[in-house]
Amino acid sequence: MSKNPSQAANHLKAEKSPYLKQHALNPVDWYPWSAMAIEKARNEDRPMIISIGYSACHWCHVMEREFFEDPETARIMNENFVNIKVDREEHPDLDSLYMKAVQAMTGHAGWPLTVFATAKGVPFYGGTYFPPEDSHGLPSFKKVLMSVILAYKKNRDRVNAITADIEKTLSRKAYTPVELGEGLVDNAFGASKVFFDPVFGGFGRGTKFPHAMFLKFLFRYYKRKGEKQALNIIRKTLPSMAAGGVYDHLGGGFHRYSVDEAWDVPHFEKMLYDNALLLELYALVYEETGLGLYGDVAAETAGYLLRDMRSEDGAFYASEDADVGGVEGEYYIWDYEEIRRALGEGAGRFMDFFSVTEEGNFEGKNILRIDDIKKRTEESVPDEIKELKMKLFRARLERPRPDKDAKVITAWNGLVIAALVQASTSLKREDLLDEAKKCCVFFLSNLKDEKGRLLRYYLDGRSSVPATLEDYALLGAGLARIYGVTKDKTWLGEAERLTREMIGLFYDEKERLFFDAGNDQEGLFVRERDIFDNDVPSGNSAAADLLLMMSRFTDNERYGKLSEEILRSIEGIREEPLSYGNFLCVLESLLG
């Protein structure tokens, strides 16, 4: 069913988030996360469906088309639940807490995240994508809805027992301090050798994520200890990624992840944080090796961010969709004849270089990539191929573009600022440092409420959501890195102001860690503290990084002690080092 523009909007009609706006005309009576929705659930003793996603999420769009635009599914939801839509980028603390809950209940989680919760917001069941019909061991979404309704009405004792267990599980805050030293980083390096794929680079088999923060840790480990095998892992992984379909060979920048081990078939959305983290990494490796591939990819990724993701004010947008017209990857894939017509005489050389065939290498069309492992080198792409790339890029500009999520998210822009500072140094480009400064000025001028408190994001000239720990820490780190290059104390002063505010709003004296949401925000059933470095640095690892930098720049011993206390609290760093990449980077900096 397609959306009817004349249809009455639900409670999302006034929301700023593009993801929420996408659902404003669904027949499901969606509410945003709000006191009004929670009060309705309590007054009517209804369970809540908390549906969490983001605008660039392909499967979120699929679930909307299959269920949330369906009148019968909407009737069941509206009659029995209070339905809440959450943009994970707007409320990362909610996303983190409910993600942990679903993982605890089912053993896995992802987006779209579907959570069934009591009127107090405590979850008792959940999952990710549910199919229209029973499939591959998964029940259909309607069957799940009916089962949850029955359990909530007829088996409340069981529901209460589950929620009690979930609250207990998520409330545990007892940590065994770890000893900071060489053993932790040596253990992490040892784990990298175990999980490393020597054929295609990266870690593990099958679906592959960049793990940019862990690779950055390996780079720092190599720089401090001279361990060449750490650098070799990086020098195998980065060329493979840059040769595969996960890299946009025409426009620069990286897609979210690869669904195969060879980096060939991406999940086509582009996220700001991925490209910031990878820009910094390729720039670092170029500065170390001087090899053309790394410099080219860094320059092209910076070019993508400045060309396609930068607002007129100098800040950077959140993401670009995977889909165009409901077809994933439509903007990026090519058929044989399209390329032949666009490139003329050079088409044969180009198609040979990028493994293009008449029958196609992806669903009858072609993802541009270098299939031959021997050609996945560290050298620059030949000039002739670069010229043909530009010609095909201009042809691609005639296509309908993927939708852009124009939210300007504070934390993610902090990552871009840090990446631009590093790329400016590595590529010897003063203009990139100027762009980093411009971005900082935008946030210092526009992302504060009337009391001067930092805000989470900016969209359409407005912002109201309070900043989280990661926003304070990553923007503060960006400011500190500009000071580290320029020695202009204006930037240092702003970084220290954010550091002091961060400690006041988020620090937990008892556990000596930071909470993700401030003490001035309405609390959830558990005050969330996510310590995993997942898509972006966790708030605590980002805080540890900022505090360590500030202790060195200001000679403030308290900042250094707070940073070390955070690091000592991360006991999981031994068992799951790949999940603590940014923590390991900070520890390397401390040891160095």
Classify the fold: give the CATH topology of the largest domain.
Answer: Glycosyltransferase
Q: Overall mean pLDDT score?
A: 92
Classify the beta-strand content into a percent band: 5-15%
- Ends apart, CA distance between termini: 59 Å
- Give the helix tally: 22
Major β-sheet profile: 5 strands, mixed
User: Under the CATH scheme, which architecture of the largest domain would be assigned?
Assistant: Alpha/alpha barrel
Helix proportion range: 40-55%
Find the structural class using helix and strand composition. alpha+beta
The radius of gyration over CA amounts to 24 Å
Summed up, the domain count is 3
* Principal-axis shape: globular
Number of strands: 16
**Assigned CATH class of the largest domain:** Mainly Alpha
Which regions contain 5 or more consecutive residues with pLDDT less than 50? none
In the sheet with the most strands, the strands line up as: 1-3-2-4-5
Describe the structure.
There is one protein chain. Strands 1-3-2-4-5 form a 5-stranded mixed β-sheet, with helices on both faces. Strands 8-9-12 form a 3-stranded antiparallel β-sheet. A two-stranded antiparallel ribbon has the order 6-7. Helix 9 (about 210-225) runs parallel beside helix 11 and helix 11 (about 270-290) packs antiparallel against helix 12 (about 290-310). Strand 10 and strand 11 (about 325-330) form a beta hairpin. Helices cover about 50% and strands about 10% of the residues. The model has no long low-confidence stretch (mean pLDDT about 90). With about 600 residues, the chain is α+β, with helices and mostly antiparallel strands. It folds into 3 domains: about 20-170, 3-Layer(aba) Sandwich (Glutaredoxin); about 180-330 and about 405-585, Glycosyltransferase, CATH 1.50.10.10; about 335-395, no CATH class. It is built from 22 helices and 16 strands. The chain has helices at about 20, 35-45, 60-70, 70-80, 90-105, 140-155, 155-170, 180-195, 210-225, 230-245, 270-290, 290-310, 335-345, 345-355, 385-395, 410-425, 430-445, 470-485, 490-505, 540-555, 555-570, 580-590, and strands at about 30, 50-55, 80-85, 115, 125, 255-260, 265, 270, 320, 325, 325-330, 405, 410, 455-460, 505-510, 515. It is globular and about 70 Å long.
